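FIELD: query
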Amino acid sequence: MARFAWVMLVALLGCGGDSSHDDGGLDAGFDGGLVADGGSDAGSDAAFDARVDGAPDGGFDAALDAAFDAGLDGAAAPGFGAIAGPCPRITGELSTSTASLFSTRLDFGDDPFDVPEDVSRLTPGGQEIWMEGTLGGSSGESEVFAFEVLARCDGAALLKSESEIRYVVEGAKTDILVDFGGTPIGVSVTRAFVFPPSEPYTVALAQDLLMRKLSDILESSANVAPEDRWRKQILVVMAYADMHAESIMSAWAALDPSITADTIVYVVVTDGMDEPLY
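FIELD: result
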């Protein structure tokens, strides 16, 4: 996986942006769908590899099935907010024991998510997550749209929300439990953001975020009750701008395999009127 890896990384880090509305920066990488594998050899497995992937065929909602059946190769099913470019396919990574990194963009344009009028425009799973809320904090919108991307790109179906997942030992919790064609997957959600938004989002900040969230994922995976046990976890990082995504990718590439484990990190850069997510 080391082929042209660091060339891609250097290209990404050399074209940062500091605005959620910046159309440059990582566009080439996101339009292709980035994936990186890790977990065995830190020198070679921290490589970035661009690829265009198609969306899988249906299996979760009639409206979304129709979009996939129409032959929209690599395109997202319709929903609130435009998922830019082909969707990265992650289903092939769900049964592996290595870490991986994917990315895409979610553009709200000039239409922010308004409550309650826009809730009905979400997928059924997104609506359920919104209605049930979260176990504290103000992360409801980010969790909803993390699920929306997974549902519209890869057919994820909601199994349980945060309050429904059971553990044998109390501690770190996972935000949602989803199903990918019969494979249960835990999903944790975080946000790469600093206030004020124009302030630099450094690699050090990104590393601290990833270390905390990936450590929590290891803890919740060890403690989840047998009836809710997932195959592996996805950490969805909602990134405010290209700068934030670049720092997350750079920090992830430098992490020890004991921290990245077999977790999929899925970076979603948000554009347009995305303030409700942050």
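FIELD: remark
Residues 79 and 122 are 6 Å apart (CA to CA).
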